[in-house]
Design a protein that fits this description.
The structure holds two protein chains of two kinds. Chain A is mainly beta. Chain A has one helix and nine strands, in the order βββαββββββ. In chain B, the strands form six sheets. In chain B, strands 1, 2, 3, 4, 5, 6 and 20 form a seven-stranded mixed β-sheet that branches. Chain B has 22 helices and 22 strands. The chains are: A mainly beta, B alpha/beta. Strand 1 of chain A pairs antiparallel with strand 9 of chain B, so a sheet runs across the interface.
C-alpha cells in the first residue's frame, strides 16, 4: 500500500512486524511500520471480526489498535518505534489475564 | 507534589504554539501538553525533523508547510515547559489537567487552560470505508510529512475540500500520481456571493488556482459532481464505484484517500460541558466563545480549529489573542494594554476569518454525504452500527437523540468515543425527525477522553486521586 520515498536518510531501527524482522526510520510510529510492512488488516474487530487498518493516523479513530511488545489495544499511530519492538496484528478484543 | 502554572495549553499546533510564545512574552508561567513527539500539530507535523533530515521534502510539501518552521522556532525558544508525548485524559473546570506521559500518570494545576486540540477530518461514511486500504487524506498527508511514506500502486482521492487538492498536488510533486480525483461537492454558485471576503484575504485564491493548475498540468483526471461512492473489496479495497454524469464508473484501486473538510476535534471541549452551538455554514458544532476565545466555563479558553474552523494562520492569530486575554484575566496586563498589544493578532484573525465563508459554502457537504442513504453504510466504525439501523431505530422505535442511540445499539460507545460517528448520527436523527441538528444535540461526552488504565489512576498522588475519573 505504501512505499518509502527514496532519499530518506534518517537513522533506522529494527522492529518485528507480524514476526518479520524489518528496518524502519526512527521517525516511524508502530502504525507507520504496519502501513509499510503489515500487508493489509492490522486488527480484526471485536464485533464481527472483520479486518481493519490504520485510518486517521492522528489518534482520533482508534482503528490502529494493535499489540505492541505483547501489550494489546495500543494506538499504533501514537507509539514511536524503538529497537527490537514487536508489533503484531490484534485479533478481536483484548484478553484480560488473571 | 502537583505542579502549578498560570496557563496550561493543550495542543502544540499553530494555535497552541503561538499562544505559548505570546503567553511567555507576557510573563505567564506556561505549560504546553501535546500528544505528539514534536511540536507542529497535524498541519506542521514533523517539520523540524523533516527540515533537518530530508529538506528536499519541503519542496514536495510546499511553502505553507515550510512556514511552520518560524512558529516551531519561536515556540522552542520561548520560556515555557513543553511536555511532548503527553496524553490528556481529563480536564476539570477548577484548572486541573490529568495526563499520562512516558507511562506515568500526573496532574497539573493551572489557573487558566487553553484547549487547542485542532481539527479532525469530517467523516465521509460510504459503503466500504472501513476496508483496509481506505484512509483519510489527512492520514496520507501525515505519513508523507512525518515518515516520508507515499502510496504505492493505484490510488484515488475522493471527497472535497482544499486539503484533498493540496494532498494530490504534494503527491504529484513526490512523483506519485493519483489515478483520479473524485470530487463529491462543489457549490460554485452558492459560494459566489462570499467571493469578495475571500479575495480580501490575501493569498487564498492564488494558492487554490495554482493547485488546480498543477493537477491539470500533471494530467490527473478530475471527475466532478460524483455521487453514490462505494468501495468494494474482500479483505482490502480493490475497486471504487461511483456515478458521474449519469454513468456508473468502476476503477480498480489499491488505496483510497477520503476527505470532506475538517471539523473541530471536540471531545475535550464537550467533556468539559462547554456551551456549544451549531455552525450551519460549517455543518458542525463548535464551542461558544467570545472574541478572545473565552468559553462558557471561566477557567477554560479555546483557540484554533477546535473553536470552529479558521485554518492554520487564523489558528495562530487566535492563539495569540487568547494568550492576551489570559494575561488580562490574571491581572498581568491592563485591558487597555491588552487591546493595544493584541491589535495585530486580532486584525490577522479577522482577515483569515473573512476567507472562511467562501470556502465553507464552496465545500459544504450535501445531505447524502453526511446522512448516508445506502442502509449498509457503517456509521459507527467501532460498534459496527449501520445507517439503515439508525434510521429504523428513529423511525420505528422513536429513538429521539444520540444519547438514546447509545442505549439502543452502543453507537458511539467504542474506543473512539463517538469521534468518527457523532456528526453522522446527529445528521441522520435530524433528517429522520425533520428537526434542525441544533435541536437534536450531540453525544454527552465524559472523561476520560483518552484511554487510561486503573494502574494510572492508582499511581496518582493520593491526595488528588479520589477526584480522578471513576474513583
Amino acid at each position: 500500500m505504501f512505499a518509502l520515498l527514496l532519499d530518506d536518510t534518517e537513522a533506522r531501527v529494527t522492529v518485528i512486524v507480524n514476526g518479520d524482522t524489518v528496518s524502519v526510520p526512527t521517525s516511524f510510529t508502530a502504525a507507520a511500520a504496519m502501513l509499510l510492512y503489515g500487508n493489509g488488516a492490522t486488527r480484526t474487530t471485536a464485533i464481527s471480526g472483520e479486518g481493519r487498518a490504520p485510518y486517521c493516523m492522528m489518534g482520533v479513530c482508534f482503528e490502529c489498535l494493535m499489540e505492541i511488545n505483547g501489550e494489546p489495544n495500543q494506538q499504533g499511530c501514537l507509539v514511536a518505534v524503538s529497537e527490537g519492538m514487536r508489533i503484531n496484528r490484534q485479533r478481536g478484543k483484548r484478553e484480560v489475564h488473571e | 507534589m502537583t505542579a502549578t502554572c498560570d496557563l496550561a495549553i493543550i495542543g502544540a499546533g499553530p494555535a497552541g504554539m503561538a499562544a505559548a510564545a505570546t503567553a511567555a512574552d507576557l510573563g505567564l508561567s506556561t505549560v504546553v501538553l501535546d500528544e505528539q513527539p514534536e511540536p507542529g500539530g497535524q498541519i506542521y507535523r514533523g517539520i523540524d525533523r523533516l527540515a533537518a533530515t530530508r529538506p528536499r521534502h519541503l519542496e514536495i510539501l510546499g511553502l505553507d508547510y515550510a512556514a511552520g518552521l518560524e512558529l516551531t522556532r519561536a515556540f522552542r525558544k520561548a520560556n515555557i515547559d513543553y511536555l511532548d508525548n503527553a496524553q490528556v485524559w481529563q480536564v476539570e473546570p477548577d484548572g486541573r489537567v490529568f495526563y499520562r506521559r512516558n507511562g506515568a500518570a500526573d496532574i497539573l494545576n493551572a489557573k487558566k487552560i487553553l484547549i487547542a486540540p485542532g481539527a479532525m477530518e469530517r467523516p465521509l461514511p460510504v459503503p466500504g470505508w472501513t476496508l483496509p486500504g481506505v484512509l483519510t487524506c489527512g492520514a496520507g498527508q501525515t505519513v508523507l510529512k512525518a515518515n516520508g511514506l507515499a502510496p504505492k500502486g493505484r490510488f484515488v482521492l475522493a471527497g472535497c475540500g482544499p486539503l484533498l487538492l493540496l494532498f494530490a498536488a504534494q503527491l504529484v510533486r513526490a512523483g506519485v500520481k493519483p489515478a483520479a480525483i473524485l470530487e463529491t461537492t462543489f457549490n460554485r454558485w452558492a459560494a459566489l456571493s462570499y467571493l469578495p471576503g475571500f479575495l480580501a484575504a490575501p493569498g487564498y485564491l492564488g494558492k487554490g488556482l495554482a493547485l488546480l493548475r498543477e493537477l491539470k498540468a500533471a494530467g490527473i483526471p478530475i471527475h466532478k459532481g460524483v455521487t453514490q461512492l462505494a468501495i468494494k473489496g474482500d479483505t482490502q479495497a480493490r475497486e471504487i464505484e461511483f456515478v458521474c454524469d449519469g454513468t456508473t464508473h468502476r476503477e480498480p484501486v489499491d488505496t483510497v484517500f477520503l476527505h470532506q473538510g475538517v471539523v473541530p476535534n471536540g471531545n475535550l471541549a464537550w467533556s468539559l460541558n462547554l456551551a456549544h452551538e451549531w455552525d450551519n455554514a460549517q455543518r458542525c458544532f463548535r464551542p461558544t466563545l467570545d472574541a478572545w476565545g473565552r468559553s462558557s466555563v471561566p477557567a477554560i479558553l479555546v483557540a484554533g480549529d477546535a473553536g470552529g474552523i479558521v485554518g492554520a494562520k487564523g489558528a495562530e492569530a487566535m492563539g495569540q489573542v487568547a494568550a492576551f486575554a489570559t494575561a488580562t484575566d490574571l491581572g498581568g496586563i491592563s485591558i487597555e494594554e491588552c487591546n493595544q498589544r493584541a491589535g495585530i493578532a486580532r486584525a490577522s484573525l479577522a482577515k483569515h476569518r473573512a476567507a472562511r465563508p467562501f470556502l465553507d459554502a464552496l465545500y459544504r457537504p450535501h445531505q447524502c454525504w453526511v446522512a448516508p442513504p445506502d442502509p449498509v453504510t457503517v456509521v459507527c466504525r467501532c460498534e459496527e452500527v449501520r445507517s439503515g439501523e439508525i434510521r429504523q431505530l428513529v423511525n420505528a422505535q422513536n429513538c429521539p437523540g444520540p444519547n438514546q442511540m447509545k442505549s439502543f445499539v452502543r453507537c458511539g460507545m467504542g474506543p473512539c468515543q463517538g469521534r468518527l460517528c457523532g456528526l453522522t448520527v446527529v445528521e441522520l436523527i435530524a433528517e429522520c425527525r425533520g428537526l434542525p441538528v441544533s435541536e437534536v444535540g450531540y453525544y454527552r461526552i465524559r472523561p476520560p477522553v483518552k484511554p487510561v488504565t486503573v494502574g494510572d489512576l492508582a499511581a496518582l498522588n493520593v491526595a488528588t486521586r479520589h477526584d480522578a475519573v471513576g474513583l
